[in-house]
Specification:
Blueprint (H helix, E strand, L loop, with lengths): L37 H20 L4 H6 L3 H4 L3 H5 L5 H17 L4 H27 L11 H7 L4 H4 L8 H19 L5 H21 L2 H7 L4 H19 L5 H6 L2 H22 L13 H19 L9 H31 L4 H36 L3
Helix pairs in contact: 1-5, 1-16, 5-9, 5-12, 5-15, 6-16, 6-17, 10-12, 10-14, 12-14, 12-15, 14-15, 16-17
Length: 396
């Protein structure tokens, strides 16, 4: 949810941050993209839109208040498909594994920390303040969190500290932060190498399985068995991509297809990841359930997510080098942060306040949240991100 997508540097020791983003400057075969994997930016936005569709029309709960009735009534057919949108989170995690491995390779720990903090915090702080302020308005029907809990939310540690969450989606950030910590501790700090990354993937996979079997809360908290396969799968796909980029043109096809270790990491991660996704999201058909996600549908979407990132890793989508995809990638994180709770407010105003139809309200709400995301990116992220990165990167 929070990453940029730039192709890897050919030298693993390169560590200089580039421009307004947080990944190393690299030479590129494409003068237009500047090395950016724009298809990955586009995939991130697709995943964010999947999650938005889930929050607006694929579940019950508070959004029912916004619509005035269950989304099942608003979208009698589409709600069954929107219910699969929550799997956009798993796709995000695969992308995150790919990009964090790419951006952390060859970086010192201070630079890695600065890039992560400067990327996450500006839009997050703005979203927390904005949602808290909107929910405090008398005309808004949703209950705001207490001032104390709102302040704790600024730390991103509200979940382990037991505070109420301002942003419903912030639980995924807590997952991401734990992944960053593991990767920083075991890969970035000692220095990234192919062998160390492979060892990290193997040990984390085995440790997560053992932690799940042990049914120990602390191990679950640290190792995240249900999400680890997606991050690890993304790391494996980055290894495929890196091996391919480092190979000579004559051996590139053989290199991308013939790396059994990297593909083994990806395959095992997919096998384990689909199992957790089915376990978490499938339920037996029931008339009382909001929708019925089939195990086949869940496995299919997880597979498509892995396949899409694999296609990018192998260069199959290098033709998708349109400049607007860079903008899409920049909007994804702020859109993801604000779309759920503020989307409820917009839906309520458009549908119940102005009487606009369900489909039109859905589309206009998406458009409004994308516009807000652009404003946050333009006036918050582009202003604060480089300043925070520079301050945290400064040697002491």
């Amino acid at each position: 949810m929070t990453e940029t997508a730039v192709s890897p540097a050919p030298q693993p020791t390169a560590a200089a941050p580039a421009g307004p983003r947080d990944t190393p400057a690299v030479p590129s075969r494409s003068r237009t993209s500047g090395g950016r994997l724009r298809a990955l930016d586009g995939l991130r936005l697709v995943a964010a839109l999947m999650v938005a569709a889930y929050h607006y029309g694929g579940r019950g709960g508070d959004v029912t208040t916004a619509w005035g009735s269950s989304p099942k009534d608003q979208f009698p057919t589409l709600h069954e498909y929107f219910a699969y949108g929550c799997l956009g989170v798993q796709i995000f995690f695969v992308i995150s594994g790919f990009v964090i491995c790419m951006s952390g390779w060859g970086r010192p720990l201070r630079s890695f920390f600065a890039s992560r903090a400067s990327r996450l915090l500006p839009a997050y702080w703005a979203a927390v303040i904005l949602v808290t302020a909107v929910f405090a308005l008398p005309v808004v029907v949703y209950e705001a969190v207490s001032p104390s809990d709102a302040l704790v939310n600024l730390t991103m540690l509200q979940q382990p500290l037991g505070a109420d969450r301002v942003l419903g989606v912030c639980w995924t950030l807590w997952v991401e932060i734990r992944f960053y910590a593991l990767f920083a501790l075991f890969v970035v700090m000692p220095g990234a190498s192919r062998q160390r990354v492979i060892l990290f993937c193997a040990v984390w996979t085995m440790a997560a399985a053992i932690g799940d079997a042990a049914n120990e809360p602390l191990l679950d908290l640290v190792l995240m068995p249900e999400y680890a396969p997606f991050f690890i799968g993304g790391i494996g796909l980055y290894l495929v991509h890196r091996d391919r980029k480092d190979a000579s043109p004559s051996s590139r096809l053989r290199s991308s297809r013939g790396d059994p270790t990297a593909w083994g990491i990806v395959g095992v991660s997919w096998l384990i990841g689909q199992r957790y996704a089915v376990q978490d999201l499938w339920h037996a058909p029931s008339a009382d359930a909001f929708s019925n996600r089939s195990s086949f549908g869940i496995i299919l979407i997880v597979t498509l997510g892995f396949t899409a990132v694999a296609a990018i890793a192998l260069g199959r989508l290098s033709w998708a080098d349109w400049r607007w995809l860079t903008v899409a990638g920049a909007l994804t994180y702020p859109f993801y942060l604000v779309h759920e709770h503020l989307g409820w407010v917009v839906i309520h105003g458009l549908h119940r306040g102005l009487g606009i139809g369900s489909a039109e309200t859905f589309a206009l709400t998406i458009a409004a949240m994308l516009l807000l995301a652009w404003l946050l990116n333009r006036y918050v992220e582009e202003t604060l991100t480089p300043k925070i990165r520079a301050a945290l990167s400064r040697a002491r």
